[in-house]
Amino acid sequence: MGEDDYTGNLYQRFPVTIRRGLGATVWDEDNTEYIDMMGGYGVAVVGHCNERVVQAIRGQLDNIITVHSSLYNKTREGFLDMLSSVAPRGLTGIHLNNSGAESIEAAIKFARKFTSKTGVVAMRGSYHGKSMGALSLTFNPKYRKPFAPLLADVSFAKFGDVDSIRDSINDDTGMIIIEPIQGESGIHVAPDGFLQHIRDICDERDILLVFDEVQSGMGRTGRLWAGSHWDVTPDIMCVAKGMAGGVPMGATLARPEILSCISKGEHSSTFGGNPLSCAAGKAAFEAITQDGLIDNAADVGSYIIRSLHEMQKRHHMIREVRGRGLMIGVELRFEVRNILHNLIKRGVLMLYSGRNVLRMLPPLVLTMEQADTVLHKLEEAITDEERLRGMT
To answer: 300 pLDDT band (50/70/90 cuts)?
Structure first.
């Protein structure tokens, strides 16, 4: 029996069985090699089997794997020191959990308790997770409708439109949540000035500003945190995905006075802050900040985006290229399914956003040589599709 016989129809699967990985390369059961532009949906930030992370996990395994946060642990303490040292200014209150959705759930509760207001403004095109609270802030109706009713008092404003934000606010609005770069909806970058305006609105109206950096954080955009491209600091920030090099981990960072409003027992996590994840997390941040991964994401990402713009001139099928660093979207005029399967045959794994956007979230160790290979294979796949559709 195969995985599908047990796991239901929850995932859109590709016909590849991955056995091992290293850096930005993975191999299947037949030892066929692929350049990994999926990156585990953005999890493999520091690369598969990153040496720092592997050694940290091995070392921790010889000591202890789990220590509940009702007890102290030096590995956790070391990770918290590391995370607070690289967090946006003032976000030194840290709740450790296990995933992006959990980090969002914590943010909802922290904001509600701190402000005593239940209203939330999220963005059209947003994606914040699929647990009930996080799903309530996720825009796409196909995710929401089967599970209604969700949290009340949630409104959706137009991403990039300050007037729409103002129109969505009322006296009960306690938080505004935003991805500085939207991922699920097709890699939409906040326009210049937008985040600054939201920050000003939140300050004027005593509303908490929450950044969801689960996908855009950890150096992916060529900055450690995407919000720093616009020099805007939120009150709460949610992170996860690659923060422990592939080991499940999430965190909700907040101003200390926000976190301190939560009393003992009002929020907790059995597995959050376990020493294994913390050891991996400290090693992952060391890799990102000390091994040139942020600069590499900026350089290789800029090269890919420039090259895609040149490719766009040669192929009418490409409608738009968007992104920062190694968070890249290529919007096509047709569905991307055929191209994704064509790329698999050519040794490239790539993601999608919706039906017509190719999404790239590769490990930040992706080399220029690998980028050139991906670009070459992608142009071949696009050319094949254009021929199939009679566009050449």
So the answer is: very high
